[in-house]
Design brief:
This protein is mostly helical and 747 residues long. 70% of the residues lie in helices and 1% in strands. It has a two-stranded antiparallel sheet with strand order 1-2. The longest helix is centred in the N-terminal third of the chain and has 31 residues.
C-alpha cells in the first residue's frame, strides 16, 4: 500500500497553519522520533507511525471543524475560508466529512450577505459532487432566495432529485415573500407533477398565494388536496384556509371553517376578524372581537389597531379612544398607527385636550418626527379650531409634502378661514407642489360657504386644463355642489350634464341645488332619473329631495317619498327627515300635522325643529301652537340667539308684550346676545364686510342712502322681509351641515 505523503500548499507556511491549531491540541501530540539511522526497520515497525499520523489527522480535522464553527458563527468569513482550506487539505475529497463544513460555510455566506463567496461555495459543491445532498440543496435554495435570485433558487430545486418537499417549500415561500404569487402557484404545480407530496408546511404558502391572486378555483383544489392527503389536521393550515377564503370574498365558508375548528389560537381569531374587517362587516368583526376577549385570547397590537380603526371608520370615535386607553392600561406599547387612529378620533369629536395628551405621548415615544404623525397632528389641531398650534407644527416641518399642505389648507377651510386658505394655496404653488384632487375638493365647499364664486371658477378652469383630474368624480361632485350651493343652478347643471359617470353624491348635490332655489319639480324629475339609473338613494339624498318638496310646497309628493323611504328604499328615517316633514307641513299651513309629527317621532326634537314650527305659526297666525312650541324651545335653553329673537318676534306680532318681556329677561339672565347681522359685498378687488348699523366704513354717508333706496325698490317689487320666515335659516343651516358631513363621509 503506497504511503500517503503530507505537504503544505504553496503560499501556506507551517506557522500559518499552526495559528489555526488550538494550543490544547498541540500539547496532546507526543513527538515521534523518526530518524534515518534505522534503515533496517521492518514494515511492522512502520505501523505505529501510521496510526499516529491517522490519529493526528483525525484530531486536527475535529479541531479545525470547531474553529470553522466559531468563525462562521461570528461571521468571520475570511478565517472561515482559510480554515475550510485546511480541512479540505486533510480530508479525502470524497469524504462525507466535507458536507458539514461546506454547509456551515454556505450558511455563513447567507447570513452576512456574501454573494460572490457563496457562489464559489456552490461551484465547490458541484465539483465535489454534492449537489444532490438534501442538506446542501436546502441551504442553496435559502442562499439564493436571500439575495432575491429566485431563478437560481428554482434551478437548484428543479434539478434536485430529492422527494422531500422541504426545498420546494422554501422556494414557494420565497416566491410569496417577494410578491410573486403566480410563480409560487406554478412551482407548487410543478412539485406535485414530480410526484413530491406536499406537507403541512407547503400548504400555508400556497394558500396565501391563492389569496393574493384571488384564485378561488386553485384555492379550492388545494383545499381538496388537504382533505384527501394524510398529513393530519393542522392549525396553521386551517388558519391559512380561513385567510384565503376571506380574501376571495367567501366569508361564509371562512366562518364555517372557523366554527368547526377543534382548536383555535390567536391567529385563528385574527384571521377571521380580518376577513370581516376587509369586507367592511364591522358589526360582525366587533362581535367576534368581544368573543375573543371573553375567551381570554391574548390581543396583539395589530388586532387592537384593526379594531380601533374599525371604530374610527364606523363613526364610533369614543369607542376607538376607549380601546386605545385599554391598550395603554394593559401596558401595550402604542405604535404610530395607534396614534394616527387616536388623533383621527380627536379630530372628529373636537377633543383638543386629549389630542394634546396623544401629542405628548408621541414626543416621548419619538413618533412626533414621523411625517404621518405630524400631518395627523396638524389636522387634529386645525379640526379642533386651534389653528395656531397647527400652523406652528406646519412651519416646523422642513420638508413639506403634499399631504402636509393639504392638512393645513383643509384645516383653514374647516374653519371658514378663506383668506388663510388662499394664502397657503399660493405658497404651496410657489413651493413647486401642484394641488391634488384632495386639495381642490377641500377648497371648493369653502368657496360656496363664503360666497367666493370667483375662486371656485378659477379652480374649475384649473381642473379643466389638467387631464388627470378627469377621472376623479369626487372632485366634479364638489364642483357641482359648489355651484349649487352658490345658487348657480344652471352652471351646476352644465357640469352635471357633461359628466359621463354619476353617483348618488352627484345627484344629491344637484337635487339640493334645485331645492334651495324652490325648483321642486326639477328636483323630483332628477330624483326619478337617479332611480331609473339604478342608483339607490341614501339618507342624505332623501333629506335633499324632502327639503326640495318643502321649499316648493309639494306636500303630497313629500309625504309619498317619506313613506317610500322605509318600504321601497329600506331606509329608516332619521331626525333630519322628520325635521323636513315638519317644515313641509309648516310651510303649507298644516300646523297640526307638523305638531303631530314632532310629538310622535322616535327622536328628541332639536331646537331647530321647534324654531321651524314657531316660524310657521307666526306666518300662519297660529298663536296657540306657536306658544306651545316656544315653551318647549325655551325649556332647552339653546345658545343660538336667533331662536330667542324668533320667539320674541312671534310674541310681538301677536301683541303678547308681557311674554315678550319675559323672553328678553330670559335672554339677559342666560347672557345670550344676538350678534349683529353681517354681509359681504364683492367689489371686484376683494370682499368688503358690512355689519348692521356699522358706521366704521369711510364711505358710510354714501352707502346708507343707497341701501335705503334699494330697500324701497325691493318693497315695491313685492319683497317680504326674511324675518317672517325666520325658520328658513335654521332649517337650511341644519340641512347644509348634514350635506357637508355626508360629503366628508363619502370622501
Amino acid at each position: 500500500m503506497p504511503h500517503r505523503s503530507y505537504f503544505f500548499p504553496k503560499g501556506l507556511s507551517v506557522s500559518q497553519i499552526q495559528r489555526f491549531i488550538p494550543k490544547k491540541w498541540k500539547q496532546s501530540i507526543k513527538p515521534v522520533d523518526i530518524r534515518d539511522d534505522h534503515p533496517s526497520t521492518s514494515c511492522n515497525a512502520q505501523e505505529p507511525a501510521q496510526r499516529i499520523f491517522t490519529s493526528v489527522e483525525a484530531s486536527m480535522i475535529d479541531s479545525l471543524l470547531t474553529s470553522l464553527k466559531e468563525f462562521t458563527s461570528r461571521g468571520n468569513i475570511l478565517d472561515a475560508f482559510k480554515t475550510f482550506s485546511l480541512i479540505r487539505l486533510h480530508a479525502s475529497s470524497t469524504s462525507q466529512d466535507l458536507i458539514h463544513p461546506v454547509s456551515s460555510l454556505l450558511s455563513s455566506c447567507t447570513d452576512v450577505k456574501f454573494l460572490a463567496e457563496g457562489q464559489q461555495v456552490h461551484g465547490l459543491i458541484i465539483s465535489l459532487g454534492f449537489e444532490q445532498h438534501p442538506v446542501l440543496v436546502r441551504k442553496l435554495v435559502t442562499f439564493y432566495s436571500t439575495f432575491g435570485l429566485l431563478v437560481d433558487a428554482h434551478v437548484v430545486t428543479e434539478n434536485s432529485n430529492i422527494l422531500n418537499p422541504l426545498p420546494w417549500n422554501l422556494l414557494i415561500s420565497a416566491y410569496v415573500r417577494n410578491g410573486l404569487s403566480q410563480k409560487a402557484l406554478s412551482a407548487y404545480k410543478q412539485m406535485v407533477s414530480k410526484g413530491i407530496r406536499p406537507d403541512n408546511f407547503t400548504y400555508p404558502s400556497v394558500l396565501k398565494a391563492c389569496g393574493e391572486e384571488l384564485d378561488l378555483c386553485c384555492g379550492k383544489e388545494v383545499h381538496k388536496a388537504i382533505n384527501a392527503g394524510h398529513t393530519g389536521w393542522s392549525l396553521i393550515v386551517h388558519n391559512a384556509l380561513i385567510s384565503m377564503y376571506g380574501k376571495c370574498g367567501e366569508v361564509v365558508i371562512a366562518r364555517d371553517l372557523f366554527d368547526k375548528m377543534p382548536e383555535r389560537d390567536a391567529i385563528s381569531w385574527n384571521s377571521m376578524i380580518s376577513v370581516y374587517a376587509s369586507m367592511g362587516k364591522w358589526n360582525e368583526a366587533f362581535l367576534l372581537f368581544r368573543s375573543m376577549g371573553a375567551e381570554g385570547i391574548e390581543l396583539n397590537i395589530i388586532m387592537l389597531n384593526t379594531m380601533a380603526g374599525g371604530y374610527l371608520r364606523t363613526g364610533n370615535y369614543k369607542g376607538a379612544l376607549e380601546l386605545l386607553y385599554q391598550m395603554r392600561k394593559r401596558g401595550s406599547h402604542l405604535d404610530s398607527v395607534a396614534m394616527l387612529i387616536g388623533l383621527g378620533a380627536c379630530s372628529h369629536i373636537g377633543d383638543v385636550k386629549l389630542g394634546k395628551v396623544i401629542h405628548g405621548f408621541a414626543i416621548r415615544s419619538c413618533f412626533s418626527e414621523v411625517d404621518t404623525v405630524k400631518n395627523a397632528l396638524i389636522t387634529m389641531y386645525a379640526r379642533c379650531k386651534d389653528l395656531r398650534h397647527a400652523y406652528l407644527l406646519f412651519q416646523s416641518m422642513e420638508a413639506k409634502s403634499l399631504i402636509t399642505w393639504n392638512s393645513i389648507i383643509s384645516g383653514c377651510c374647516h374653519m371658514d378661514r378663506s383668506e388663510e386658505a388662499s394664502f397657503l394655496l399660493r405658497e404651496m404653488l410657489l413651493s413647486g407642489i401642484e394641488p391634488s384632487y384632495v386639495t381642490i375638493a377641500s377648497v371648493l365647499p369653502l368657496c360656496a360657504r363664503v360666497a367666493n364664486l370667483q375662486h371656485g371658477k378659477e379652480f374649475h378652469c384649473y381642473m379643466t386644463r389638467r387631464e388627470h383630474f378627469k377621472d376623479y368624480l369626487l372632485l366634479w361632485n364638489a364642483l357641482v355642489d359648489m355651484y349649487a350651493r352658490s345658487g348657480k343652478v344652471l352652471e351646476a347643471r352644465r357640469v352635471f350634464d357633461m359628466l359621463d359617470e354619476k353617483d348618488k353624491m352627484t345627484y344629491t348635490s344637484m337635487i339640493a341645488g334645485y331645492g334651495m332655489q324652490g325648483e321642486g319639480r326639477a328636483a323630483l324629475e332628477l330624483f326619478k332619473e337617479m332611480n331609473d339609473s339604478h342608483i339607490k338613494p341614501d339618507h342624505i339624498t332623501m333629506i335633499a329631495v324632502l327639503s326640495a318638496c318643502s321649499h316648493s310646497g309639494l306636500v303630497a309628493q313629500g309625504q309619498l317619498l317619506f313613506e317610500k323611504m322605509r318600504i321601497l328604499y329600506g331606509l329608516t328615517p332619521h331626525v333630519e327627515h322628520f325635521a323636513c316633514m315638519a317644515d313641509l307641513f309648516g310651510r303649507a299651513g298644516l300646523l297640526y300635522k307638523a305638531k303631530e309629527i314632532i310629538r310622535n317621532m322616535p327622536y328628541r326634537p332639536t331646537p331647530a325643529m321647534w324654531a321651524t314650527l314657531i316660524g310657521a305659526c307666526r306666518i300662519h297666525r297660529n298663536t296657540e301652537i306657536g306658544e306651545w312650541a316656544a315653551e318647549k324651545l325655551l325649556e332647552m335653553k339653546p345658545e343660538n340667539p336667533g331662536y330667542y329673537v324668533l320667539i320674541a318676534n312671534m310674541y310681538a306680532a301677536a301683541g303678547c308684550w308681557h311674554k315678550l318681556a319675559k323672553v328678553r329677561t330670559f335672554m339677559r339672565d342666560l347672557g345670550v346676545r344676538k350678534g349683529p347681522g353681517c354681509a359681504w359685498v364683492d367689489v371686484g378687488s376683494g370682499f368688503s364686510p358690512f355689519l348692521a348699523d356699522d358706521t366704521s366704513n369711510a364711505r358710510t354717508d354714501e352707502i346708507h342712502p343707497l341701501l335705503e333706496g334699494l330697500t324701497l325698490v325691493m318693497k315695491e317689487a313685492g319683497y317680504v322681509s326674511s324675518e317672517e320666515f325666520g325658520s328658513d335659516d335654521e332649517t337650511s343651516g341644519e340641512f347644509s351641515e348634514e350635506m357637508e358631513l355626508a360629503s366628508n363621509d363619502r370622501c
